[in-house]
């Protein structure tokens, strides 16, 4: 039986890279359909670079301070990705807006994880905004990246309850736990060709009807 070639994945980070670590952990399994071939950060002090290095994953820093404008910086990021021979790009806490030209080059091959149930709470401070709004369910979303911030077609989502007495920190911790489960699941779908972006929507094939491949529902924690 012919072994399927694993897709080459590069990860963009700006900080600690906890979702990056979850993807690396998943890819350690040789049966996982993707391998992590490189990590790129726009910040030299990103803690995730050390995590990647401990797994012998090549890293590079492309600092925006070294380039005149977003277009030049993104061109350098694209060059680094091609040097890694990346086929898929995962954003994992990458805190810079990408230019439309860069996004177009990676159309359908670049995904992001966002700490909210899109289309609600696009942008920053999602947990605080969820608490302020009074929603009873919160979560995270993996989506294809498009030029509009946090508006790409949704691949997978995970939901957690908002508990009585939650703070921004406790809610964020609960969401982060399911992020670490959801992102590898979504990457698997893309790497296996079971999801693709077409005409601005996510198109699925071979995904089971009970949605276990595209949604995680967490019961949260009981508090008496």
Automatic annotation (TrEMBL):
Where on this chain does (6R)-10-formyltetrahydrofolate bind? Answer: 70, 95-98, 112
User: Which InterPro entries does its entry note?
Assistant: Formyl_transf_N, Formyl_transf_N_sf, GART
Organism source for this protein? Nitratireductor rhodophyticola
In chain numbering, the residues marked as site (Raises pKa of active site His) are 150
Query: According to its UniProt record, which residues of this chain constitute the active site?
Result: 114
Reaction catalysed?
A: N(1)-(5-phospho-beta-D-ribosyl)glycinamide + (6R)-10-formyltetrahydrofolate = N(2)-formyl-N(1)-(5-phospho-beta-D-ribosyl)glycinamide + (6S)-5,6,7,8-tetrahydrofolate + H(+)
Tell me which residues make up the Formyl transferase N-terminal domain: 7-187
Give the protein's biological function.
Catalyzes the transfer of a formyl group from 10-formyltetrahydrofolate to 5-phospho-ribosyl-glycinamide (GAR), producing 5-phospho-ribosyl-N-formylglycinamide (FGAR) and tetrahydrofolate.
Q: What is this protein called?
A: Phosphoribosylglycinamide formyltransferase
**Gene Ontology MF term list:** phosphoribosylglycinamide formyltransferase activity
* UniProt keywords, alphabetically: Purine biosynthesis, Signal, Transferase
Q: What class of enzyme is it?
A: transferase
Position of the signal peptide: 1-21
Question: What's the Enzyme Commission number for this chain?
Answer: 2.1.2.2
Q: Tell me the SUPFAM superfamilies matching this sequence.
A: Formyltransferase (SSF53328)
Going by the entry's taxonomy, the superkingdom of the source organism is recorded as: Bacteria
Where, in this chain's numbering, is N(1)-(5-phospho-beta-D-ribosyl)glycinamide bound? 17-19
Q: In which pathway does it act?
A: Purine metabolism; IMP biosynthesis via de novo pathway; N(2)-formyl-N(1)-(5-phospho-D-ribosyl)glycinamide from N(1)-(5-phospho-D-ribosyl)glycinamide (10-formyl THF route): step 1/1
């Amino acid at each position: 039986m012919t072994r399927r070639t694993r897709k080459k994945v590069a990860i963009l980070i700006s900080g600690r890279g906890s979702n990056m670590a979850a993807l690396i952990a998943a890819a350690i399994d040789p049966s996982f359909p993707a391998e992590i071939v490189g990590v790129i950060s726009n910040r030299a002090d990103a803690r995730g670079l050390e995590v990647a290095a401990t797994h012998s994953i090549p890293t590079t820093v492309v600092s925006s301070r070294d380039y005149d404008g977003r277009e030049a910086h993104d061109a350098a990021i694209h060059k680094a990705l091609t040097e890694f021979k990346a086929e898929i790009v995962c954003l994992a806490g990458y805190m810079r807006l990408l230019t439309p030209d860069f996004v177009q080059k990676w159309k359908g091959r670049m995904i992001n994880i966002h700490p909210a149930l899109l289309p609600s709470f696009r942008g920053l401070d999602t947990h605080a905004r969820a608490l302020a709004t009074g929603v009873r369910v919160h979560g995270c979303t993996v989506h294809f990246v498009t030029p509009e911030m946090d508006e790409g077609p949704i691949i997978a989502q995970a939901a957690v309850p908002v508990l009585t007495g939650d703070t921004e920190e406790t809610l964020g911790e609960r969401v982060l736990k399911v992020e670490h489960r959801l992102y590898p699941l979504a990457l698997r779908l893309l790497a296996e060709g079971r999801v693709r972006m077409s005409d601005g929507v996510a198109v699925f094939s071979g995904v089971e009807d009970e949605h276990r491949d595209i949604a995680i529902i967490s019961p949260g924690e009981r508090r008496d």
